[in-house]
Design goal:
Order of helices and strands: HHHH
Radius of gyration: 17 Å
Helix content: over 70%
Number of strands: 0
Number of helices: 4
Structural class: mainly alpha
């Protein structure tokens, strides 16, 4: 068997998915921070505060996931991603706390993609990790 055709070790896949999921979460937080600081979202009642809280939470949890493989941290990252994605989808079709997103621009597209990627990557990482733990017993 050649080195090129060998599959990666089983522990590599969940780790890679977790790290990529953490980066996606950090990107989502960065988009929220940019919108808060640079696009005037800080002036929108309730939504502005939620954007800042999302940026802070995504930054803290994203960095923690990068530094440590912990199931609770991964679940927290998934929760942040789900909350942000659901809120954005709602605000694209109906007002959320009195605010409705009126356009699909680059920040909206980046947020949708990074939040979906966060959920998919961290969720798959967690499932792979649990599967590996079960088979190693």
């Amino acid at each position: 068997m050649s080195i090129l055709s060998a599959s990666p070790p089983r522990s590599f896949v969940p780790s890679a998915l977790r790290l990529l999921g953490a980066v996606a979460l950090l990107l989502s937080g960065a988009v929220h921070l940019q919108q808060y600081l640079g696009a005037g979202y800080r002036n929108i009642p309730t939504i502005g505060t939620l954007f800042l809280l999302n940026a802070i939470a995504a930054g803290i949890v994203g960095l923690a996931i990068l530094l440590r493989a912990n199931g609770l941290l991964v679940l927290s990252g998934i929760g942040i991603g789900v909350g942000a994605l659901v809120s954005l989808i709602i605000s694209l079709s109906t007002p959320l706390f009195g605010f409705m997103e009126t356009q699909t621009n680059l920040p909206v597209t980046l947020a949708l993609a990074s939040e979906a990627a966060t959920i998919l990557l961290l969720g798959t990482s967690l499932a792979q990790r649990r599967r590996s733990a079960r088979t190693s017993r």
